[in-house]
Write a structure and sequence with these properties.
The complex is a heterodimer.
Chain A: H1 3-6, H2 10-17, E1 24-26, E2 29-30, E3 32-33, H3 44-57, H4 67-87, E4 95-98, H5 101-113, E5 122-126, H6 135-144, E6 147-151, H7 161-166, E7 172-178, H8 190-199, E8 204-207, H9 219-222, E9 226-230, E10 241-245, H10 247-252, E11 263-266, E12 271-273, H11 287-303, H12 305-323, E13 329-332, E14 341-346, H13 351-360, E15 363-364, E16 366-368, H14 373-378, E17 384-388, H15 395-411
Parallel strand pairs in A: 3-15, 5-6, 5-7, 7-8, 8-9
Antiparallel strand pairs in A: 1-2, 4-10, 9-10, 11-12, 13-14, 14-17, 16-17
Chain B: E1 2-3, H1 11-14, H2 17-24, E2 37-43, E3 48-56, E4 62-70, H3 73-86, H4 91-106, H5 112-119, H6 140-154, E5 161-162
Parallel strand pairs in B: 2-5
Antiparallel strand pairs in B: 2-3, 3-4
Helix pairs in contact in B: 2-3, 3-6, 4-5, 4-6
The chains are: A alpha/beta, B alpha+beta.
Chain lengths: 413, 164
């Protein structure tokens, strides 16, 4: 990247000022937040939407005849429409609101897979997955006698596509695959992989927790059966998430949890379930959170996901070029196609020590196994330091990261 | 720009020379083949895993001690300091030191009893090199991991010790 490009663009500077949390000092230094892959910060518009709802509109949804309940329901259902539009789903019936990616995946494992599989069936995942896309499948395999099989990755942290393809055999009931690796930033060619799975008649769930924040998502173009993601990774509140599911599949699936809101009629003899997507939404939902998620989508739509992706790509290039100049650094995850996430190790300094020294200089990174212990094991390490970028970061943040790494080297010299 | 109270401590309060020395060259590192007591310590937050081995003689004295595993500088240095400090002591004394050290590190340095207990034994002075973690709350568990593992080994607990 040229020096001119290094300067934060006007657009980026504008984006940054929308995030009040970034305007603070931590440990006496201006905060540099490089942990968006763990949880992204929220723009003022999201914080305000949640606060406004709490102050002015709060009531339960889908229940009351009174004005506040109408307002709450309109805002909540309005957010569902925004989500549908954001990922280009065909119908709002396909947008199930959950507490996060984890619940979305568990829902599919328990409601789609569990009633239909048994010993002899296989669930196919990859070595890159987050624990949230491993453990729900292990559970359903324990419950049914099905077998979990894992497609390998290479030394760059890329899927071995030939091996994955060869594992798509007749006895595979389901493929569950991450869009973007949270630990390594690898972007999987999910569109091509889904097309291959379709040819083999295998339904596909995409764990999109790390995909949605970085790139435009079109579930019809991907042709996936399920796409799971979280609100707090995409600049919305925690405790919100989405399961996109193909309507024909959702229709056939039994409810995941029972309770209020997911029923049409209840007697002690039997219960008639509500229509989609409410069949899967038992109990009072996270109304304020979902409204905040709607506001986050408004923000992303106005910023433009293409612009965000292009900006992040430039910034990631700059981070890579700068990290590449650091002596004794080992980059973990060097796939050709990457999101703006970089894991690394510095000399023999344990990632936890690195995290503390960087934090002491106001630089927030993630350290450890990133809920992806099998990935760490694949590289023969216990953890990494990980810097993950969002569009509110800039080149100065990268320069501060570099200076902080130099300081760490001095401490451990 | 907003900010919380400015920090006054230095990062080198945490990474003192003695800590870095023990982290680089841990004492009594490795497996103890004739161990009579052993336990694992696991810090689920960061995945650090240590195993402490003790050989206790008929007089309830710690004849030999070692540890192995991987962890950050703080957890390895703390384990190394532990082995140096309790070798040759009675089991009761080791348990007393465990209590004093964990109290000292987890009570933000305000617990006078912790100080007093340690001061009883001048050779244990160097454990105070761990005091820096008191200003770094997220690292206290690293410093206490090996101590919990030793405690668990002495009690012959069936489950690995965790810092949670």
């Amino acid at each position: 990247m040229s020096h001119a490009q290094r300067q934060p663009s006007v657009a980026a500077a504008d984006w940054r000022k929308d995030f009040p949390i970034l305007m603070q000092t931590v440990n006496g230094q201006p905060l540099v937040y490089l942990d968006s892959a763990a949880s992204a910060q929220q723009p003022a518009s999201v914080i305000d939407a949640v606060a406004r709802y709490q102050r002015e509109d709060h009531a339960n949804v889908h229940r009351g005849v009174h004005t506040l309940s109408h307002r709450a329901t309109d805002a909540y259902e309005g957010a569902r429409d925004k989500i549908r539009d954001f990922i280009n789903a065909t119908s709002r019936s396909e947008i199930v609101l959950t507490s996060g990616t984890t619940e979305s995946i568990n829902l599919v494992a328990q409601s789609f897979c569990r009633p239909r599989i048994g010993s002899g069936d296989k669930i196919l995942i990859t070595h890159l997955e987050h624990h949230a896309n491993i453990v729900p499948w292990q559970l359903v395999c324990e419950q049914t006698g099905a077998e979990l099989i894992v497609a390998p990755i290479d030394d760059h942290g890329q899927l071995e596509l030939e091996a994955l393809r060869s594992m798509m055999t007749n006895d595979v009931f389901m493929l569950a695959i991450g869009h973007v690796s949270n630990a390594l930033g690898t972007v999987n060619p999910v569109r091509e992989i889904i097309a291959q799975a379709k040819q083999c008649g295998i339904p596909v769930l995409v764990d999109g927790a790390q995909g949605v924040p970085h790139m435009p998502i079109d579930v019809q173009d991907l042709d996936c059966d399920f796409y799971a993601f979280s609100g707090h990774k995409m600049f919305g509140p925690t405790g919100t998430g989405v399961l996109y599911g193909r309507e024909t599949l959702l229709d056939e699936m039994p409810p995941y949890q029972g309770g209020g809101d997911m029923i049409l009629e209840v007697s002690f003899e039997s219960t008639i379930y509500n229509e989609l997507p409410y069949k899967f939404e038992a109990g009072t939902p996270n109304i304020s959170g979902v409204i905040g998620l709607g506001a986050a989508i408004d923000y992303l739509q106005s910023a433009g996901m293409q612009r965000i992706a292009a900006y992040e790509s430039d910034l990631h290039e700059y981070m890579l070029s700068q990290l590449g100049r650091v002596d004794d650094i080992r980059l973990i995850g060097t796939a050709a196609d990457k999101a703006s996430v970089q894991s690394f190790l510095l000399g023999d300094i344990h990632s936890h020590d690195l995290g503390t020294i960087l934090d002491h200089q106001g630089v927030a990174i993630r350290t450890g196994h990133h809920c992806a212990m099998p990935v760490m094991k694949r590289f023969g390490i216990s953890g990494t330091a990980r810097a993950s970028l969002a569009f509110y970061n800039n080149a100065d943040d990268i320069d501060r990261l570099l200076a902080a790494l130099e300081k760490a080297r001095q401490v451990f010299k | 720009m907003t900010g919380h109270a400015a920090v006054t401590h230095d990062i080198l309060d945490l990474y003192r020379e003695l800590i870095l020395d023990h982290a680089r060259s841990p004492r009594h590192f490795g497996r103890l083949e004739n161990a009579t007591h052993t336990a694992q310590g696991i810090n689920p937050l960061c995945g650090d895993k240590l195993c402490v081995y003790l050989c206790i003689d008929d007089n309830e004295r710690i004849e030999a001690i070692s540890f192995e595993g991987s962890g950050c500088a703080i957890s390895v240095a703390s384990a190394s300091l532990l082995t140096d400090s309790i070798i040759g002591l009675s089991v009761d004394k080791a348990e007393a030191i465990f209590s004093a050290v964990t109290r000292r590190l987890t009570h933000g340095g305000t617990d006078e009893r912790g100080d007093t207990d340690l001061d009883l034994d001048k050779p244990l002075e160097k454990i105070k090199a761990l005091d820096g973690v008191r200003e770094f709350p997220s690292r206290v568990k690293c410093a206490t991991l090996a101590w919990h593992a030793m405690h668990s080994a002495l009690r012959q607990d069936a489950m690995p010790a965790t810092t949670e």
